[in-house]
Amino acid sequence: MIRWLSLALIGGALAVAASGLGILPSSAESAKVVPPPAVDMPGDRGAGQAAEVAVLAGGCFWGVQGVFQHVDGVTSAVSGYAGGAKNTAAYDQVTSGRTGHAESVRITYDPRKISYGRILQIYFSVAHDPTQLNRQGPDVGAQYRSTIFPANDEQARVAKAYIDQLDQAKTFSSKVVTTIEPGKPFYAAEGYHQDYMTLNPNQPYIVFHDKPKLENLKRLFPQAWRAEPMLVSKTGLNN
């Protein structure tokens, strides 16, 4: 994001103004709820299973983290990197697009309150555009790809079935390009990337590209909306 941030500050402000004048479409208005998955993991695994983890990539991690921090049942959402090696899990290297990493978010959730399939439904509906290949909006490169990093075979099975379901139903105007990459460890990002949306609410990039995602979440998933975000500053990086 470093290479385009200065442009985003200017372009984002202009885009916000243009949207307000009706020149650009509002992403908050164009978003829609995709159908829930026909195949899902059990929502309640009993008293001994109080936490599950999902790792998802969908463009800049600021917005994806911000969305899931407001989802009821999510106990932690940490920005980071997945898909590459430990020694290249650093922002200045990941931005090259040559490390294999994608900007990702590790979502810890209570399966007694929300299922893995519901997490994926929100991911496909409001967190990003799963039809954009190796990019999201102004962010271009493999590090911004749409990817699911399943924690186990069951998650991989649910994710594949869901992508097939969405494609067969022609839910989107284009094919879903989200990849499934199992067996890839997650590495937490630098501290200055954590809770970025909450800490920088007036940054033009956040205003134009990420805040509408929260509006979409609140509007389209009112039962899943939580007003108070689960911030890393409260939950810690290891939760």
Task: Characterise this structure.
The chain has one domain: Peptide methionine sulphoxide reductase MsrA (Peptide Methionine Sulfoxide Reductase, Chain A, 2-Layer Sandwich). The chain is 37% helix and 15% strand. The chain has 9 helices and 8 strands. The chain has helices spanning 2-20, 27-30, 61-68, 91-94, 116-127, 153-168, 196-199, 204-220, 232-235; strands spanning 52-58, 74-82, 102-109, 135-136, 139-140, 146-149, 179-180, 186-188. The strands form 2 sheets. Strands 7-6-1-3-2-8 form a 6-stranded mixed β-sheet, with helices on one face. A two-stranded antiparallel ribbon has the order 4-5. Mean pLDDT is 88; it is low at 1-29.
Tally the structural domains: 1
Could you describe the largest sheet, including whether it forms a barrel?
Answer: 6 strands, mixed
What is the highest CATH level, the class? Alpha Beta
What's the CATH architecture name?
2-Layer Sandwich
In order across it, which strands form the biggest sheet?
A: 7-6-1-3-2-8
Instruction: Write the element-wise H/E pattern from the N-terminal end onward.
Output: HHEHEHEHEEEHEEHHH
Structural class: alpha+beta
Q: Tell me what portion of residues adopts beta-strand conformation.
A: 15-25%
CATH-assigned homologous superfamily? Peptide methionine sulphoxide reductase MsrA
Q: How many strand units?
A: 8
Which properties best describe this structure?
9 helices; globular; disordered N terminus; two-stranded antiparallel ribbon; 239 residues; Peptide Methionine Sulfoxide Reductase, Chain A; single chain; six-stranded mixed beta sheet
